[in-house]
Design a protein that fits this description.
The chain is an alpha/beta fold. Helices cover 39% and strands 17% of the residues.
């Protein structure tokens, strides 16, 4: 708490003494330190929370944004699921501010679709409105795993405002809900959950059916032994992306399932860094 007070007081004095401080000195004083915030509310529900990781030296011109969305079949999971890769992401992408988002989960009583979609939209609206306070640019990337990847794709493909993402990172996310429900390769648990959750929103909530000329560049990762989200989900998505001539990359891993080994995760992160360097300016 004392550290935060010192930071706030420093920023106050910088702001109020800017006119009298020589330009060289001011540039040193205005070099913002790294700041992390936990469980910032973007709504009234206990699940509507964000963890925020703002890098040192950030500014509205150059600091890009990475939104992380956890998986869990839309019924479970938590932003804490990314704890094992957060440090790696921050080291690999030091110029990015990272926002790790929780959202309301579906159950048999309620929170059916489009609740999860609406929560991600609300979180993005919240962050965008605070972009001047957070000192972040309009170069955004959405990333997710499994159900979180579905929500990242859906958000990036469906909405043009408040900001159009520069890229989407998709770890084995469902892309065509209607075909997933009828796919005999998918596990019964997935099919049962989908029927409960989607609330007759299959087509409107299927990213692969929303691809158009304005769809952001997309990189996807899929295990060929995945029994929860079959490889056909990514193959269909990338067929659509190719048809619209959208920049895309699909990485298929023969010996992986719904979740990757550390070696494969390292390979996938290397691919992400290369992809973002190419398409996120």
């Amino acid at each position: 708490m004392r550290q935060y007070l010192i930071i706030l007081l420093s920023l106050f004095f910088i702001t109020n003494s800017a006119k009298s401080v020589p330009s060289g000195q001011l540039s040193l004083l205005s070099h913002l330190p790294e700041v992390n915030y936990r469980n910032i509310s973007y709504g009234n529900d206990a699940k509507q929370k964000i963890d925020i990781y703002l890098p040192a030296g950030r500014n509205q011109s150059n600091t890009k944004v990475l939104i992380l969305i956890h998986g869990g079949g839309w019924t479970q999971g938590d932003k804490a699921d990314f704890k094992d890769i957060l440090d790696s992401l921050r080291n690999r992408l030091p110029e990015y501010a990272i926002f790790n988002v929780n959202y309301r989960l579906a159950n048999k009583e309620g929170n059916f679709f489009p609740t999860q979609e609406e929560d991600i939209k609300a979180a993005i609206d919240f962050i965008y409105k605070k972009r001047k306070e957070y000192k972040i640019s309009k170069s955004w990337v959405l990333a997710g795993a499994s159900a979180g990847a579905h929500l990242a794709l859906l958000q990036g493909y469906k909405y043009k405002k408040p900001v159009r993402p520069k890229a989407i990172i998709n770890y084995f996310g469902p892309t065509d809900l209607d075909s997933l429900i009828t796919n005999t390769d998918a596990k019964k648990k997935t099919i049962t959950e989908l029927k409960i959750i989607i609330n007759k929103e299959a087509n409107n909530s299927s990213p692969a059916r929303l691809v158009n000329a304005y769809t952001p560049p997309t990189i996807s990762f899929q295990g060929l032994n995945d029994g929860l989200v079959p490889p056909s989900q990514q193959i269909y998505l990338h067929h659509q992306l190719k048809a619209w001539k959208i920049p895309e990359k699909l990485e298929l891993y023969p010996n992986e399932g719904h979740g990757f080994t550390s070696t494969t995760m390292t390979k996938s992160m290397d691919a992400i860094v290369d992809f973002l360097k190419q398409y996120v300016k």
